[in-house]
């Protein structure tokens, strides 16, 4: 039966999977598995820093530290404090003493490891007052040059784009939540390899720090785009907080007119009892979403009405005949973090997270029979890809033990694991011949069994003592990423077992492993001049790659099958790093950074041939690692309550791994399927300028101005393997000299916050993104159509009110002027947000 109602969607939810959300997981068992599994496999983890130790540093003989005449804030704050002065939240410890605003101080990881990157930070208080925070990724909304591809509230495909890498580059940034890497380096896309933001409750965030570029030897080549550090607020006394947020978005596009409502409940609680501190957080989201995709056809089906005549981004007919994904999502997540003081100077931490998603999509057709007026699918099988039931349960574990002696030596040991306990999507194979329903048979797409582990052992050696002229840091790293991605045939698409008939439509599996050692020396040559040199040596291997692919007839019967055992790949590389920082006086800093980095192909880029949400992806098992050379020059002026920074940057990348998605038309059925292909591009170059500023008390007390402007000139320098055809002219195209896909030329943000007193904060902020292409030959010439990548200008409002010591309320509007734009998907229109928070 053809239905577009939400109630019908609820009735069609799969009974077989209804109880999955309550599946129990033993913390002890998970921890044992983490420590016992993958013997010999190391991994990568966060450099987030512990709170200061509870006793004075041990007495050691060391020369008097060099005291620069104009000492930087980072150095001023590096003295140990006794236990009685221990700061409550770990993220705020030993920071903020030199500025009127804590977020202007260097991140804890930068101070601990003397990292050379420039940073930008926001605290939980600033986020509360200025941002319509519905999901944790909203916290970076106004950071310079950053953009999160968030299509709806609770989007589990929200990728972080940076100044020079676009919104399909999930593995070109590193995102950490305390000791847990939430970047899913299993792939490099904006679907199933997107960061696992959902593990974080918004109310557990204490501070967010962003570090530019691949300039620190401590981070792998995935830091090409930068490193985002999210720190939880570990308590020193009892606290609890609960927040309810409701957002309402009216929608009217093509043939869909509705109002979509999302409700979200977030809570966190914690305490310190002697040596043990704990933080528990949870989040529940119930989200109805606007159409995320549309079903298109090269021609309007005969005998129907209701289609919307349209072109695709390349100017080819792509008539919109209905929605694709029109989903209702229910997500639950929880996280517990424990911290124990093993000694006065050594602290151990453990965190466990679980995330569950139950999502149902029920497409809407715009077509009606010209003869009867009844809704019809008109034989277009593309509607079946938007009809699904999807159930996911993922768990994470992280352990760490760290010292903070502020003496000659300190160490960090950490390990983390992420596991897909359940990840099953059920689809009908096609629509019925009558055009008014779905086929009984279908597909079962599974990713449960996919997992990864990371581990790091890091140390700090201060040969001349704390604050001495040399500080040497070093470490070892290892990781393992395992992909399991079978697609089974099923006889009854929404009631058969998890493996259906046992017949495989496709299979993608494989594994990558990386090992690394690194070394860095931060050398203060003069009181106001610091040279940082480092290097990272890495070995990488891809193995066990295996693919099955089949051809089928229109009813789903397999007509041919091919199985391929892929060849092993390996690479060994060294990445040098260098930084020179000069303080002309206490208010100015000039820093030049250089870094080479290798970004290795992910296991999904190599082996996953899959259709997710109607988008087909074709893997490439012969990819080369990317080799990236990045340099930047930063000039910064500081005040106690503000900062302005000018950055000139240039990147050159050889063998850049770039994917592009285009609509491919079936010549017989005229059905159009978005298809993503992945390839190495011989050489690209990106260069530009970024200007950012942030200042409190401008003209009047309580008035804060913040903003940034970024310009990027991106060019493809060489691609000998290119053989493209313009779909309009059928003539060969070239890519040399064309813009790099998914990199906008301009990106700008500007905001004003006025705080007349401690009770009120009023914010108006605007975001702009300029022209970007999504094809290597830049043939996507049509804008504001499904599949295009548009420029946009969006204005947001927020009013924050502290009604009492315990109660706070928010009212906001995102996309005030209801800008309608596409970044392949249609993005949210005007959205009204109301929130209330109670702090115990």
From TrEMBL:
Origin: domain of life: Bacteria
Primary localization: membrane
Biased composition (Low complexity): 70-98
UniProt domain TonB-dependent receptor plug: residue ranges: 114-227
Topological category with respect to the lipid bilayer: Multi-pass membrane protein
Keywords: Cell outer membrane, Ion transport, Membrane, Receptor, Signal, TonB box, Transmembrane, Transmembrane beta strand, Transport
Region (Disordered): 66-98
Start and end residues of each TonB-dependent receptor-like beta-barrel domain: 348-816
Compartment annotation: Cell outer membrane
Family designation: Belongs to the TonB-dependent receptor family.
Protein name per its UniProtKB record: TonB-dependent receptor
Annotated organism of origin: Bradyrhizobium zhanjiangense
């Amino acid at each position: 039966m053809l239905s577009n109602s939400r109630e019908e969607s609820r009735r069609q939810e799969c009974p077989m999977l209804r109880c999955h959300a309550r599946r129990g997981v033993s913390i002890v068992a998970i921890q044992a598995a983490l420590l016992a599994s993958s013997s010999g496999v190391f991994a990568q983890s966060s450099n987030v820093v512990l709170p200061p130790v509870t006793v004075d540093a041990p007495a050691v003989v060391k020369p008097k530290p060099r005291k620069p005449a104009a000492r930087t804030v980072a150095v001023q704050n590096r003295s140990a404090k006794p236990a009685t002065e221990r700061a409550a939240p770990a993220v705020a410890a030993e920071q903020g003493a030199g500025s009127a605003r804590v977020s202007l101080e260097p991140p804890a990881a930068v101070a601990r490891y003397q990292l050379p990157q420039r940073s930008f930070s926001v605290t939980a208080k600033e986020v509360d007052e200025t941002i319509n925070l519905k999901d944790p990724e909203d916290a970076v909304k106004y950071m310079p040059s950053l953009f999160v591809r968030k299509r709806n509230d609770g989007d589990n495909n929200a990728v972080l784009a940076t100044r020079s890498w676009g919104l399909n580059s999930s593995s070109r940034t590193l995102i950490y939540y305390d000791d847990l890497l939430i970047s899913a380096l299993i792939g490099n896309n904006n679907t199933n390899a997107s960061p696992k933001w959902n593990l974080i409750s918004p109310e557990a965030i204490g501070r967010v720090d962003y570090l530019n570029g691949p300039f620190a030897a401590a981070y792998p080549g995935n830091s090409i785009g930068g490193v985002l550090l999210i720190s939880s607020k570990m308590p020193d006394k009892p606290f609890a907080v609960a927040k309810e947020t409701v957002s309402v978005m009216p929608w009217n596009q093509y043939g869909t007119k509705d109002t979509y409502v999302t409700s979200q409940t977030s809570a966190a609680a914690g305490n310190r009892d002697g040596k043990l501190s704990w933080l528990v957080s949870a989040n529940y989201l119930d989200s109805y979403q606007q159409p995320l995709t549309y079903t298109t056809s090269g021609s309007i089906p005969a005998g129907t009405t209701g289609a919307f005549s349209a072109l695709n981004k390349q100017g080819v007919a792509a008539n919109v005949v209905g929605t694709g994904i029109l989903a209702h999502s229910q997500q639950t997540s929880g996280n517990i973090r424990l911290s124990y003081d093993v000694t006065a100077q050594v602290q151990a931490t453990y965190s466990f997270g679980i995330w569950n998603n139950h999502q149902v999509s029920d497409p809407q057709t715009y077509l009606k029979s010209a003869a009867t007026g009844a809704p019809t699918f008109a034989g277009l099988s593309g509607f079946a890809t938007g009809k699904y039931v999807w159930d996911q349960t993922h768990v994470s574990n992280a352990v760490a033990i760290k010292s903070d002696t502020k003496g000659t030596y300190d160490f960090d040991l950490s390990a983390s694991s992420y596991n897909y306990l359940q990840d099953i999507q059920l689809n009908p194979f096609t629509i019925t011949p009558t055009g008014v329903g779905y086929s009984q048979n279908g597909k079962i797409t599974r990713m449960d069994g996919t997992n990864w582990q990371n581990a790091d052992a890091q140390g700090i050696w201060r040969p001349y003592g704390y604050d001495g002229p040399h500080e040497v840091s070093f470490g070892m790293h290892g990781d393992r990423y395992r992909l399991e991605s079978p697609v089974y045939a099923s006889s009854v698409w929404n009631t058969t077992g998890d493996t259906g008939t046992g017949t495989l439509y496709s299979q993608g599996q494989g594994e990558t492993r990386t090992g690394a050692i690194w070394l860095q020396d931060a050398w203060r040559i003069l009181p106001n001049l610091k040279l940082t040199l480092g290097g990272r040596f890495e070995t990488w291997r891809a193995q066990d790659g295996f693919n099955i692919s089949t051809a089928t007839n229109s009813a789903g019967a397999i007509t041919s099958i091919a199985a391929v055992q892929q060849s092993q790949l390996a690479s060994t590389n060294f990445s040098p790093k260098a930084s020179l920082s000069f303080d002309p006086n206490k208010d100015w800093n000039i820093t030049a950074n250089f870094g080479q980095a290798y970004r290795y192909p992910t296991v999904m880029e190599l082996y996953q041939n899959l259709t997710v949400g109607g988008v087909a992806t074709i893997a490439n098992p012969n990819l080369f690692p990317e080799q990236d050379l990045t340099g930047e020059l930063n000039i910064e002026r500081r005040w106690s309550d503000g900062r302005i920074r000018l950055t000139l940057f240039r990147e050159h990348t050889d063998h850049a791994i770039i994917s592009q998605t285009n609509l491919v038309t079936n010549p017989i059925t005229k059905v159009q399927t978005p298809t993503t292909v992945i390839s190495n591009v011989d050489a690209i170059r990106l260069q530009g300028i970024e200007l950012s500023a942030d200042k409190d008390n401008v003209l009047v007390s309580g008035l804060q101005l913040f903003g940034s402007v970024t310009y990027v000139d991106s060019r493809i320098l060489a691609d000998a393997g290119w053989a493209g055809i313009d779909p309009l002219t059928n003539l060969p195209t070239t890519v040399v000299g064309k813009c790099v896909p998914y990199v906008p030329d301009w990106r700008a943000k500007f905001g004003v916050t006025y705080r007349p007193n401690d009770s009120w904060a009023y914010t108006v902020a605007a975001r702009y993104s300029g022209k970007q292409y999504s094809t290597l030959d830049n043939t996507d010439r049509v804008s504001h159509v499904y599949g295009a990548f548009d420029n946009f200008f969006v204005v947001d409002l927020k009013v924050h009110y502290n009604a009492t010591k315990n109660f706070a309320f928010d009212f906001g509007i995102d996309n005030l002027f209801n800008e309608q734009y596409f970044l392949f998907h249609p993005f949210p229109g005007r959205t009204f947000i109301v929130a209330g928070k109670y702090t115990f």
